[in-house]
Design brief:
The complex is a heterotrimer of chains A (about 150), B (about 350) and C (about 130). Chain A has about 150 residues and is of the alpha/beta class. In chain A, about 35% of the residues lie in helices and about 15% in strands. Chain A has a single domain, classed as Rossmann fold. Chain A is built from six helices and five strands, in the order αβαββαβαβαα. In chain B, about 55% of the residues are buried. Chain C has one domain (about 10-130). Classes of the chains: A alpha/beta (about 150), B alpha+beta (about 350), C mainly alpha (about 130). Chains in contact: A-B, A-C, B-C. The interface of A and B includes residues 25, 107 and 127 of A. The complex binds iron/sulfur cluster. Iron/sulfur cluster (SF4) sits at the interface of chains A and B. Iron/sulfur cluster sits at the interface of chains A and B.
């Protein structure tokens, strides 16, 4: 099955679909993800498509420290994504809670507690180029030879 | 609000056109929306609760993180409110620099809002043009302050960095670029029959409804209701500011108004640059105790900070009223009512430039 | 009653909205005006309003406050008719007009005006309690 695997590798390296979910951020990280779409960074030249639809996504970008309303919903979104898949935490919020992790907050960071996170991009907010680089360097690790590793 | 309906359509919380999570529940007859409800709570952070008891040095940064899109204006209004409590004078040059930064932020935010609208009505070409133009604005912000988002440039008694002559020259170049590019895009928007048809006479919002729901900002100004806070701001008064009004109150008017305001903002920045004189940018001062209520005009409308501090400058109570609170309510309860198809629900919703992170704080 | 997929009980989130500083002020003002207990008013609001309207209550109250100086001294403005039917719609139109009618009738039959107002407010309180 080597030929088939090679074909899959080739296709997957040029077609990464991304979905982003905001689980309680300040919007700063979300707009930096949106900025990646701009022709200046041109995310599509690397074969990355932002659709925001979990059912056809390969990579889930998470922004924001976890707000309690998401408890069942984030799990659901995560389950809907077909294998192989990976989640990247964008910004300080999902990693540590950023400035919101103080007395009186309603958030419940880190997101790592709720779904498995494959990579983290710190920054408040990180630059679009950093987000782009994280996706590009994570994708081969997760998708290359996925079926062969499964066996 | 319950009525006899045939279809009830929930949209969200994760939906391709929403930048942020929220859930609109529409009750429809066929494809016509009878009433809509909004469900929030997905990004509730409790910033007001965190702020209580903390010194202003921390609150300043927390205030910026109420909203990442218009972080500059939160910084601006929060600091001006605290300056008013403790009678701190701001040097002239710093006041102008603040206005420049605020208008830069407005350009950026309006471009993003119009980008989302064009993206929602599936006109991707125009959307991409607009978001690329936004990168120029972000460059200008980065050049002035050193960061793209959350730049905490404004501090009590002044601003952090000066605008050197070389930077000023680059800034002028960028403004010219924005003006010339945007003229082209606005003509595309005006002239494109598909875009205009898709936007005119949809999501109607009358002046009376705007008054009743206390709508603010471009959403209200597109319905001919003038409650622009810049009219009362001392620095803007010096610049001779006049707000722009349109009276159609539909999606088209709201988007057009934002385009027109971008041109106005570049003009304001130019006149700031012309009036500015060299001088100090940091006057210093000490934050004391007291209460104040101060409003400023955010890209989305009137933003109010109701602050009371103790003698050492720690926050006792704070109430933040962001523009999106009023605008989203107006959008969901008035504009969406009577919209003819479910495809227009999302475009009408986006046309009011909702920002859930502001709304929930 | 419409039922949705994956519906959740939102009472807790709505209560969080109502506990911010600006909301506390507005709710306290309403309670004082109509002699209500805070718990009861909050409960009624949570039951009737959706979340965006709840967030907007302080601003809407302010709109009504601004109209106060212009409005002439009438039974309607003293009872806060527009406040309770339009700005913060706690009471249905017909119920409100019934209350106004009753109060007007009492005054025209030679009742003491203050007393009539008090009873009118008591009727409003009844409706909100129910
Ligand atoms: S990391 Fe910073 S910019 Fe990003 S969502 Fe959190 S507070 Fe906002």
């Amino acid at each position: 099955m080597k030929a088939l695997q090679d074909l899959k590798n080739a296709v997957r390296s040029r077609s990464i679909h991304v979905c982003y979910v905001n689980v309680g951020s300040c919007n700063g990280c979300d707009i930096e993800i949106l900025a990646c779409l701009a022709p200046r960074y041109d995310i599509e030249q690397y074969g990355i498509y932002v659709h925001n639809n979990p059912r056809e996504a390969d990579i889930l970008l998470i922004t924001g420290g976890f707000s309690p309303q998401w408890e069942d919903k984030l799990k659901r979104v995560w389950d809907e994504i077909p294998e192989p898949k990976a989640a990247i935490a964008i910004g300080n919020c999902p990693i540590s809670g950023c400035v919101f992790n103080r007395d009186g907050t309603y958030l419940d960071p880190p997101v790592r507690k709720h779904i498995p996170i494959a990579a983290e991009v710190p920054g408040c907010p990180p630059r679009p180029t950093e987000i782009l680089e994280a996706i590009l360097s994570l994708a081969p690790v997760v998708f290359k030879d996925y079926e062969r590793r499964e066996e | 609000m319950k009525k006899i309906v045939d279809v009830s359509l929930p949209i969200g919380p994760v939906h391709p056109v929403f930048k942020e999570p929220c859930r609109i529940k529409c009750e429809m007859r066929g494809e016509q929306v009878l009433s809509a409800e909004l469900e929030l709570g997905y990004v509730k952070k409790g910033i007001e609760r965190i702020m209580v008891g903390r010194p202003w040095q921390e609150v300043m940064f927390l205030a910026e993180r109420v909203c990442g899109i218009c972080s500059v204006v939160h910084n601006y209004v929060c600091i001006e409110g605290m300056e008013r409590i403790s009678d701190i004078e701001v040097p002239d040059r710093a006041a102008y620099l603040r206005v420049i930064l605020n208008e830069m932020d407005r350009i950026q935010s309006h471009l993003l809002a119009n980008y989302s609208y064009c993206y929602t009505i599936e006109h991707e070409t125009l959307a991409m043009y607009l978001i690329n133009l936004r990168e120029t604005t972000m460059d200008a912000l980065e050049m002035i302050t050193g960061a793209r988002v959350t730049c905490s440039y404004i501090i009590p008694g002044g601003v952090r960095f000066d605008l050197t002559p070389e930077k000023e020259k680059t800034l002028r170049g960028m403004l010219d670029h924005i003006d010339s590019e945007l003229t082209r895009f606005v003509n595309m928007f005006k002239g494109g029959p598909m875009i205009a048809l898709r936007s005119k006479n949809i999501g109607n919002f009358t002046r009376e409804e705007a008054i009743e729901s206390h709508a603010v900002g471009p959403t209200a100004r597109a319905s001919n209701l003038n409650n622009d806070c810049r009219l009362f701001h001392p620095t803007y008064k010096k610049l001779g500011f006049e707000s722009i009004l349109l009276d159609d109150g539909d999606n088209y008017a709201r988007i057009m108004l934002r385009f027109l305001e971008i041109f106005q903002s570049t003009e304001l920045i130019r006149s700031c640059l012309a009036q500015m004189e060299p001088g100090i940018i940091r006057g210093g001062g000490i934050i004391g105790g007291g209460t104040s209520k101060w409003s400023g005009e955010a890209p989305r409308g009137e933003l109010t900070y109701d602050i009371s501090t103790d003698i050492r400058g720690r926050i006792k109570t704070i109430g933040i009223r962001t523009p999106s609170i009023m605008n989203i309510e107006a959008c969901v309860h008035y504009m969406l009512k009577g919209v003819d198809s479910s495809a227009d629900v999302t475009s009408t919703y986006i046309s009011s430039d909702p920002c859930i992170a502001c709304n929930e704080r | 009653m419409v039922t949705y997929l994956y519906e959740r009980d939102l009472t807790e989130m709505k209560l969080i909205i109502l506990s911010s500083a600006l909301h506390e002020k507005t709710v306290a003002a309403l309670c004082k005006k109509y002699g209500l207990r805070r718990q009861i008013l909050r409960k009624k609001m949570i039951r009737l309003f959706d979340m965006s309207l709840l967030e907007n209550i302080p601003a809407r109250y302010e709109v009504w406050e601004k109209t106060l100086p212009e409005a002439k001294e009438s039974i309607e403005s003293r009872l806060g008719v527009t406040l309770l039917t339009q700005q913060i719609p706690l009471i249905a139109d017909d119920e409100m007009s019934f209350i106004v009618q009753q109060t007007n009738k009492k005054i025209s039959t030679g009742y003491n005006e203050e007393q009539a107002m008090k009873e009118g407010i008591a009727m409003i309180r009844e409706v909100i309690h129910s």
